[in-house]
## 1
Amino acid sequence: MIRYYPEKIIILDDARVRDSIITKNILSAVEGRNISVSYFCEEKIAAMIQDAKKLENSYGEGKKTLLITANRGEFLKKCPGTNDYICCDYYIIDFAQNCPMECTYCILQAYLNNPFMVVYANIEDLFAELNSRLFADPHKKYRIGTGEFTDSLALEHLSEYSKILMDYFSDKPQFIIEFKSKTDYVKTFTNRSGARRNVIISYSMNAANVNRFEELKTATIEERLIAAAECVKAGYKITLHFDPIIDYDDFETEMALTVELIFKYLKPRDILYISLGAFRFIPALAEIIALRFPKSRIIYNEFIKGYDKKSRYFRFKREKLFASVIDSIKKYDTASEIEIYFCMESPEMWNALLKKAPRSDEELGGTLYDKCRNCFKAI
Amino acid sequence: MLEDIQYQYLSIPLSGLNQADEDNRISIPADYAQLEKSISETGLISPLIVCASGAGYKVICGFKRLDILKKIKPGAPVKCLVTDPLPPADQLALNIAENISSRELNPVEAANAIAKLSAFYGRGEIIEKFLPAMNIQKSEYAYNKYISLASLGRRAKEFTASGRIPLAAAFQIVKFSCSEQEMFLNVIEACRMGANLIVETAQLVFETSMQYGVCAGEILTRAGCESIISNADLTPNQKTEEIRRALHSLKRPMYESAMARFRELAAEFDSRKISLNPFAYFEKDEISVKFNITSIKDLETKIAALERLKESRLAAEFLKNNGGHGDGARKEGKAGR
C-alpha cells in the first residue's frame, strides 16, 4: 500500500500546535521531501478552507493538504447511536479528521466540512481531558477507538499518534483502546517490546470484490490480514469489522473468499470479536457517491428508511447478507471463540441470527469489554 | 470586445443567408406560436445579426425569427444588422448576450449555449463568466448538469424547453439513450403525469436500471409499460398507477414479495372487517390490528377472529417466537440483482 504524503503542510501558528510532539514528528517524517510547510493564523486558515471547498473535486483535492491544528472542542466523544437499533456503547478520540483513502461509501465525504486532512496536535489538551473525564465514573467500561473520523493508522507513519496514545494508556489497563484501520501499517505495534495488554488492533473487512472496486487506495484484504498476523505475532489481539456489508455481485462467493483468507492468517483465538453492519447512508452521501464515483452501483438497491433516517437494506435482505457472513465464519470458528455482534441493528435481527438481543447498549458494550479484559488477563 | 462591434443595417434576401449554418444556434427548432403571431401582425421588429461569410451571410443571432420568416414570408428580404467578420467565439458570445438581454434562456438553450461555449472557453471561465449571466448557479455541479443536458434527444429537448417535463426529470432521462427517452416520453404523455410524478418515475426508472445493471429501456419493458399505455380500457390515472406499481415491484422485490405474502395470509380476516398491517417495511415483528365494533355480537365475532389469528399462518410467519420470522416471505424474496 502506498503511504500518504501531503503536497503541502499548513500549521496553525499557535504554541500548543507549533511545539507539539505531533507537529515535530510530522515535520521530521517529511524532511527531505518536496513538501511546502507554512504557518498561518486561524483566520487565514479558515479562509484557505473556504477556498479549498470551492475547488473542483474539493474532497479529493483537499486531501493533498495536511492541516496541523488544535481541536477546540471535545476530544472524547460517544459514538452516536439511535433508539431502536442496538449500539455497542463505544467511545471515540477525535484526534484527526478525513482520510487519504478513497472508499466510495465513506460517510466522511458527507460529514466533514473541511476538505483538508486534519491532525489535532494539542495533545496536552487531549490528555488533560482524558484525565478528567475517564476517571469520573470508576465503573464505566470504556472501549475507546480512534478510527471514526479518520483511519487510526493512515497517518501513523507521519504523526505516531497511536504510539503516543498507547503510551498514555499503558498504565491504565482498565481502558480498552482500539486502533481501527484499512492500512497494513504495523511498525507502531511490532517495533516495541511487549504488547500493550489493553490495546486491540482492528481491521475493516469486506467481500473481496468490494475491496477491489469500492475501497480505493486502501490496503488489500490480504495485506491487512498479513499485518494483523504480524500484530498477533507481536502479542496483540485482533478485532474485525465487516462494515459496511454491501449487497454486491456474487456476494456469497466473494465474502467466503475473504473469510477463508481471514482464517488463513488468523486463528479464531486471535480474534476477540467481529462486528457486522450493513451499508447505510444519508441522502447527501448518495448524491456525493453518484457524482464522485459514477461507476459505483452501491446506492442503487432495495433500500428502506431506517429509524435513524438513513437508507438501509430491506430487513430480509440484511438478514440474508448477515446470515451468509455468519455461516462462513462459523465454518472456521467451530468452537465459537469469536464474539459476533451487530452494529446498529434491531433486536429482531439479533434474535433471528445471534443469541438473544442485548437489553441495552451498555449490556453489549459490557460484554465486549469483559471479553477483552478476560482475554488480556489470560495472556 | 463585443461593445466595439460596428453594425451596418441591410435588407438581405433569404437566399443570401447561409441557412444551413447553425454554428451559433442555441434555440431548438420548435413551434414558436407567440413570436410567429407577432411577426405576422407587426413584421420583424428586431433585426437578425449576421456577418459576412463567403458569398453570403452567416447568422449570429435570430434563428427563431429566421425559422418563422422562412415559413410565413419566404420571398421577403430580411432586416439584418451586419457586422464585420467575427471570430467564432465572439459570434457565440454575441448571440448569448443578445438573447439574455431580452429574455431568460430556457434550460435547453442554456445547455446548448454552455456546450458550444466549451469549444472556445475553459470550464472555469464559463462557470465564472457565463453561468451567472444565464442565471445559473456558479458551480462545477451546475456546469456538469447543463453540459449533460445538451446531449438530450430532440423530442426530450422540446419537452424540456417547453416545460412539459421538469428539469429534474430531464437530468435523469439524459442518462437514457435517445430511443429510451422516446419510450419514457410516450409513457408520461399517455399517463398525463404531473411534474412530481414525472420526476419520481424518471428517478425510479434510472435507479432500477442501475440496480439491475441494465438499460432504462429494459426496465420500462420489464415493467410492461408498452402494453399498459396501449390498453384502451385504462384511464390515464389507472395507467399511472399500474406503471408505478410495476416499477416499484422491480425496485423492491423482496418487500413486494413479503407484502404479497402478508396480504395473502391476512385476506382470511377481511371478511370479518379486521384490518391487518405489518410494521413499516417489516422492520419489527409486529402486526397492527384495527377493527370497529357495532354490537356485543359483533364484538364476539371479532374476538373469535382474533383467536383464529393466534393460530394463523400469518402469526406464525410474521410474529416472533413462532420459529417463522417471515420465512415464507423471505424464501419468496429474491435479491434484486
## 2
Amino acid sequence: MIFEQLVKESPLAIYTCDASGRVTFFNAAAATLWGREPDLLKDYWCGSWKIFYPDGRPMELDSCPMALTLKNGKPFNGEEIVIQQPNGVLRSLLVYPSPVFDEKKILLGAYNTLVDITDKKSNDEKHEILSAIVESSDDAILSKGLDGIIKSWNAGAQKIFGYTEEEVLGKHITILIPPALISEEEVIISNIKAGKKIDHFHTVRLHKDGHEIEISLTVSPIKDAFGNITGASKVARDISELKKAERLAYQFAKRQTLLNSIGITISEKLDVKEILQKVTDATTEITGAAFGAFFYNTFDETGESFMLFTLSGAPREVFEKFGMPRNTAIFHSTFSGEGIVRLDDVTKDPRYGKNAPHYGMPAGHLAVVSYLAVPVISSSGDVIGGLFFGHPEAGIFKAEHEEILASVASQAAVALDNSKLFEEVMALSEKKDEFIALASHELKTPLTSLKGYLQMLQKEKGSKTSEFFVEKSLKQLDRLGSLVGDLLDVSKVEAGQLQFNFDFFDLHKTIEDILETFRYNTTSHIISFTGVEEQLMVYGDQQRIEQVIINLFNNAIKYSPHAQQVFVSLEVNKDQAIVIVKDNGIGLSKQQQKGIFKRFFRAEGVAHIAGLGLGLYISKEIIDRHQGSFIVKSEVGVGSEFGFTIPLKTNDIQTILTM
Amino acid sequence: MDKKKIYVVEDDNDISEMITILLTEEDLQVSTSANISDFRKLLDKELPDLILMDIMLPDGNGIEECKELKESNKLKSIPLILMSAHAQSKFVIEECPADGFIPKPFDIYDFMAQINHQLTKTS
C-alpha cells in the first residue's frame, strides 16, 4: 500500500506498459508532464501527444525509448527526448524505461521514469550562448579572484594583451598593470570587495611585449550562490585607436588654427618682424620642436652671410653667444635652397661636425638631436632665409611636418616679398612728402620777391592799364601762394607735423572778417549770413579755422558757377558751434561724397574748375584735430552744404588742452 | 638824424635784393649778408638798429642764432625779426626770444608795419 501511494503521489512522472506496449498505469505527475491523460490499455508506449529527438526531428511513437525497451528488452538510462503537450508547450525529458521480466525471463512489461530537464536545459543553453559571446567578443573579458589571480581569459583578452589563456591562468593580474599604476589594483579590489562596480574607467595596461595600451575598464563583482563576493569579472576595451583618433583630431584642429593664424598674420601684417615671429612661433608649435628659429638672409660684400632674426622656445641670448650660423655643411643645403633637411639625429649625419672651430655644436649650445631645416625661397627664386627646428630627442620630426612647413615657408616668402614692396612704397611715399615739403618751400622763395616787387610797383603811379594788370597779377600770386601753402600743409599732415596753436577766439568775429574780405573781392556771388550775431568764444587755432572757412567759401563759389548766392550760418547746439556753408551749385553724388576727404580728390566732371583737391583733405584734418566733426550734405544738381562743428569755450576743454 | 641801420641775413639773393630796395625806399640803411658768418663780421664792425634774419641759412639756423644773440648783453637789446617760408609764426616765437616773425611770402605793408613797430619801440 505504501508503495502504491508512493508511486501515485511521487513528484517523479512514472508510468507502466504491458509487454505489448499498452499503457497500464500512469501517475498524476506523468499526466501533468504530458499535459493529458492517456487512455489506459488503449494508448501505446506513452502518454505524450508528440515526441521529438533533441535536435528537433519528429520521433515515431513506436521508435520512442519505451517502445525500443519493450522491443529489445533493454533499458535506457536517461535518454533525452523532447515532448510536446497538446497546448504546444515543449518539455525536455530524460527517460529511464526499464523492462520487467518474470522468473522465466518472459517479458511482462516495462516501467518508465520521466525527468523534466527543461529548466536546466535552458540554463545550459544560456550559458553556452554567453560563453560564445564572451569568446567571440573583441573586448577582453576575464575574471579573477579577490586575491588577484586570473581565473578566466577570453580570445579578446588574448588579442588585446597578447597572452594566451594557458599563459595567464593562475597568474596575478598585476602582470597587466604598469608599475606606476599598480595602486589602481588596490582601489579596484577594495571597490569590488565593497560590492561596487567600476564603469568605463580609462587607464593604461601593458601588453605582453611591454607596450602600453589605453583601455576602458569595467569591473563587476562575482558572487557565489550565497551572495559572497568571490572575485571580479573584468571587461577591458582597447581604446588606443579611439584615443589616437581623438589626439589626431585635436592635433589637426590645433594645426588648422595655427595655420589660419599664420595666414591671417601674413595677409594682414606688413611688418617683417611680426610676420617672421608669428611664422616661427606657429611652426615651432606645429612641429613639436623644442625651439625654432627663422634666419633671415642678408648679403654682405663677401657673398653669403646670415643673420638671426626671430626665435621661438629659446631666449635670444642662447643663440647670440654663438654668433650667426655659418655657412657650414649642415646649413649649406638650406641656405643654397637645395631643399628641406630632416634628420632624426643630426650628430650622426655625415655633414655634421666637419667645420672649424667647433666641429659640431659649440659647448653650451642648445641640445639638438632631431633637426629640421626649411629654406624660404622668394618668388624670384632667391633664398630669403631658412626655418630651423631642433629637439633634444631623436626622431621628433616627421615627413608630414615637411609638407606643412614647405607650404608655410612659401606663404612666408610671399609675405616677405610683399612687406619688402610695402617698405619700398613707404620709403617712396616718405620721399614724396619730403619732396613736397622741399618744393613748396622752394616755390615760396620766388613768390616772396615777386610779391614784394609787384606791391612796390602797385605803389607807383602808372597808367590805368598797368595798375589794373598789377592788381590782377597780385591776385593770381596770392592764389599761387595759397596752393603752395596747401601743398606744404599736406606734406605736414602726412608727416604728422601739422602744428596747431590752440587758444580762445571769437568765431563770430572770425567769420565776419572773412565775409568782409570775400564781399570785397567777390563779384559773382552774394554771401549772406544768418545765425548767431554776437561774440562766440571757441577754443582752437584761429588761423587754421580761418583756413577751413575760407576753403568752404571758395568751394561754394567755385562749384556753383551758375548761382548767385552762398549762405553761411553760425549756430550753437549744446556745447558746440556749428558753421554751415550752403550753395546752390552742381552738388555731389553719393559716390563722390565718399572720396571728398581723400588727397587729390577732384569730383568728376569738374576738370574745368581749378584746384588741386587738397582743400577738404586739409580741412578735415584741421577739424579732426579740434575734436570737431565735418558735415556734408549734397545732391547732384541741387547744391551742397559743407560745415563743421567745433567745441565751445564752455566745453570740457581739458581734454583738448592735453592733446 | 642818422638813417636807421638794418642788417638783413638772407641767403636768397632775389629776396635780399627786393627787401633792400623796399627798405631803402623807406629811407632805411640796409646791409645784407647771405650767411651767419658774414653777418657776424658785420656785427663786429657796427651794431644795427634792427636785424631781419631768415631761419634756414647755409651755415646755421636763425632760431639758434637768435637764441645766442639774445644771450649777449651787448646784442640782446637789438630788435630781431625772423623770416621763413616754412615755419608758422607762433611756434617760432615760442621757440626763441625773437621780437617778431614774418612768414614768406609777405605783404609789404604788413612787413613795413612790423619793421616800423620794432624801430619805434627802441627809439
